[in-house]
User: What shape does this take?
Amino acid sequence: MSGVAASRMEADGSPLAVICGAGSLPFALADAVLKRGRRVVLFPIYGWADSRRVHSYPHHWLAFGQFGSFCRIARSEGCQEVVFLGSVVRPAIWQLRPDLKTLRLLPRVFQIFRGGDDHLLSGIASIFEEHGFRVIAVQEVAPEIVMPEGVLGRHRPKQQDLADIDKGMAVLNAISSFDIGQAAVIGDGRVLALEAAEGTDQMLTRVAQLRQSGQIETGSSRGVLVKAAKRGQDLRLDLPSIGPRTIEGAVQARLAGIAVVAGSSLVANCELLRQSADREGLFVVGVRDKAVDHEFDR
Assistant: This one.
C-alpha cells in the first residue's frame, strides 16, 4: 500500500462499506481494517454471505437489486468508500429484487448484464461511483490478504511444474479478452481444464472426474492450477482468490500445486493455507505475470 493511500485512510474517519458475498475473505478484510482503527459496515447479500459470521460485525442485509436501500443505509452510516468482496454466482435478471431506485436504472442494468463478469462488475461499480461512492481495491485497505511473491510452504515446484505455470499464464492471457474465467489446469504442457461459469471449485471437480474416468492420467500427482486476473481487468473487483477449499480441490484433482499472481490475488489466511498445503504435499506459489495489465487505479 502506498504512503498516499495510507495517509488518506488515516485521515478519512468514515467507515468502510463492504458488500459481502460468500467465503471468508470479507471477514478477513473487515478484521484487517478494524485493526487499523477504521470502522467497517458489512452489507451481506442474502443467500451468499455467511450468516454465522456476519453477526460479529455491524451489518445490513441486502438482496440483489436493492441499490436504493444500500445508498440510503450507507449514507446514514457515513460510508463514502465501498469494497466488493466474496464469491457469488451472477443472478439471472429475473432474480433481482429491485427497489424503486434500481427500477429507474433497469435499462442500464439490462445492458451491463449482457457480457462477462468483468463487464458486469465494472458496470455496477460505475453506478455506485455516479451516486457518490468511491469503489476501492482490497489492496488499498487490507494488503495483508494479498498473495505475496514466492513459495508459501516447504514444497517447491519442479521444472515441469514451472513450465506448466508459464503455459497457464500464457493461456489465461490469451483468453482474457473474452472475459470467461480466471483459472486453468495445465499438466505436462497440456491444457486439462479452463474455468468458465462454474468457478474454480467445480473446475477442479471436473478434473478429478476426468482422472477417475481415465480420460487423463491417474498416476502420481501431476499438473498445476494457475489463477490470474484478466488482462486489463479492473483490479478493484473480482480478484482471483485461493483458500483451504482450493487445496482440497487440488488434492482431489491430483495436482502437484497451485500458482497465482502475487499482488493481484487474495488469500484470507496465508498461514492456514501454508499449513494445509504442507499437510497435503502441494506447493503454493505467488508468481509475477508481466503479461497481465495490473491497473490498481481507475
Notes: The domain at 3-142 is CATH 3.40.50.20 (Rossmann fold). The first strand starts at residue 16 and ends at 20. The chain has two domains: 3-142, 146-287.
